[in-house]
Amino acid sequence: MRNDDWNRTWYTDKPDLTECFQNTVLVWFPCVYLWLLAPFYALKLYCHDCGCIRISTLCTAKTVLGFLLASFGFVEFFYILLERSHEIQNHMVFLLSPIIRSLTVVLAICIIQLERIRGCRSSVFLFLFWVLAVVCSLVPLRAKIQLAMYEGITTDIVRYTAFFSYFSLQLAQLFLCCFADQPPEGKTVLVKNPCPVKDASFLSKMLFWWFTGLVVKGYRTPLEAGDLWNLREEDTSDKIISDLEEEWTTECAKLQQQEKTMAAGVALGTRLPDQAQILRKLQKEQSSGFCLLRTLARNFGPYFLTGTMCIIFHDFFMFAIPQVLSLLLGFMNEEDAPLWKGYFYATLMFLLSCLQSLFNHQYMYTCFTVGMRVKTAVMGLVYRKSLVINSASRRTCTVGEIVNLVSADTQKLMDFVVYFNAVWLAPIEIALCLFFLWQHLGPSALAGIATVILIFPLNGFIAKKRSKLQEVQMKFMDGRIKLMNEILNGIKILKFYAWEKAFLEQVLGYREKELKALKKSQILYSISIASFNSSTFLIAFAMFGVYVLIDDKNVLDAQKVFVSMALINILKTPLSQLPFAMSTTMQAIVSLKRLGKYLCSEELKDDNVAKAPLSTDGEGVLIDNGTFSWTKEGPPCLKRINVCVPQGSLVAVVGHVGSGKSSLLSAMLGETEKRSGSVSIKGSVAYVPQQAWIQNATVQDNVMFGREKQKTWYQRVLDACALLPDLEILPAGDSTEIGEKGLNLSGGQKQRVSLARAVYRKADVYLLDDPLSAVDAHVGQHIFDKVIGPKGVLRDKVKI
């Protein structure tokens, strides 16, 4: 702008923009935004097809309003061409702007239709366009109203009417963009009490308006579990875990390939030194942790980056507020400053504060959502891994360690996701605060920088020390949980022998060591927090003290004090977040290594047992010259085994204790290492273990095990397994709740429930490991006749 234009706009009691500026920049700015970004937005819509949306009332209204807006531009073009041709020679822009505006609206109509075809229900892109268009039209609107009040509306009633109508239509378009369209065809899923965020518009998501219904309901009546919405599909554990498992399987395959390449590099017949083996083990743990992090970043990174963008915008608005405050205080010091500037600065501060709060809440919502998904996904991976881990790996990780991985380590990862951005953003925020303080206080800001420099190394040392202490603490916690698990499993024996005191001392010993490490860690954390909480006072005290002392001319006026205190208050947040973020990151690195190590441990091989479809003739189970062991390096537990079991036959494997009967069944299930030979099973398999496994649920749930209830078959199974007399004794029949590990059932009852579960499954091959050992002789005879024998319910099945 020229100097006289600037004087007319800023240095005046009645600010205004030139007519040239209003007809060029304010008209073209929204148009340039739409034309520049439209190709990229169209490409995004092309790559993300969500299905076609039927033409709705909302879409029709948007299209009709769009055509009306476009027609206004063309009408204005012909009006100027015919009635005001003398103005065109001096200002060609008057003729050009309506055409550009109309063509831009036509492009917006095309985008509306493209969004409908690609299934976009709420458009952020067009919402921002209409916001820009309305904001840029506010200045001409004010000018038109002032001119109409001064000259009267009758001087050029056509242009006044056209402009006010055009502005009203723009407001209507902006209002319609605040609503979401109907779901695409075929995408409507009838779910009871669905989450309203799926149907919420962009504006509703930004302002969390979709959540209002639950808040109002909770205000009127106490909320119950049924009032809560169902999870969105993208938040369900099934979707989250399956997506991550697919990525993790690919990553594990790459890691195994690297290990094979490294192993091939070692000369055949040579053995690595002990130090080299330890080094390779540590490298494997680190690489597995890094692979897990990379997989999580690939899966959840894009959504996490939207939160990162929100915090960057939040910081921009946060640092803008002290600058505007400085201008406002400067305005108050000027006696002859126009009053409108004060209103302008105050309104600007209010808008900046609103935007800062808006982006901050969006950031927190996004981070906690990603953190929840990461925790769910990793817990699912650990659980699924525990089902397929082989016996050799099972010896290296106890039940206590697995419980810790699911509870403690996954929580550490969630905290890491929430506070990770503070690790790199907090130092930048601190640097910017000190830079702006330097601008206001000059070299005195160096006193604040010196204070910060003294605090940072201390907290770096504390974070490193706490990371080591966490490893020690987790080690003792694993041991304590393992011991507690063993105590609870053998509580009867422990009580019989009065060993409570001895085992209590062992548990307390572990707990004491754990608490000792935890106490040291928390003392260090308290020092870190105390240093950072006192840092804001120390920084302000040092800077203001130095500023006043270095020069007698330095006076702390309102502008310097208030702006400096605003910047120091901003400084308070990164200084308080940084120690926690650093500590959380260090703890997450330890957890990633532990999780990666467990998730990369060896699994049961799929090719241990060849699965084949069921056939009426031939062998149901076939082992040809099989040699099996429990570990890869260990000695074989079964050698040169040949077994052929025809369909519908009963085979009893007899031998003394430790002769390998259970190992043979494990080999058929694929739970041992197959050194040589082949194992083939036709059809589905049901297994009854030697020690009955009972869930903490009802008898009926234990028998059906999640399958659909078939009343006739269910009653037949209960009768065959001799459970009907027991159900008469139980207080609620088959609805009786069985305690943890079958606490309120006898050994024989537990064994029969376990057998009934296998029979109810209607499998093709039954592997029964001493199923009659815990039952009485007459009950055993009944089960043999009704279940296992030639007239039993399993007479046509393979039974070993």
What does the model show?
The protein folds into 4 domains: 14-176, no CATH class; 288-599, ABC transporter type 1, transmembrane domain (ABC transporter transmembrane region fold, Up-down Bundle); 606-683, no CATH class; 699-799, 3-Layer(aba) Sandwich (Rossmann fold), CATH 3.40.50. The chain contains 25 helices and 7 strands. The protein has helices spanning 3-9, 19-23, 25-47, 57-83, 85-90, 93-118, 124-151, 157-176, 202-207, 212-220, 237-265, 274-333, 339-388, 391-396, 399-441, 445-489, 491-496, 500-550, 558-599, 661-669, 699-704, 711-720, 724-729, 747-760, 777-788; strands spanning 610-612, 619-629, 636-646, 673-682, 685-688, 765-768, 798-799. It has a 4-stranded mixed β-sheet with strand order 1-4-2-3, covered by helices on one side. A 3-stranded parallel β-sheet has the order 5-6-7, with helices on one face. 27% of the residues are buried.
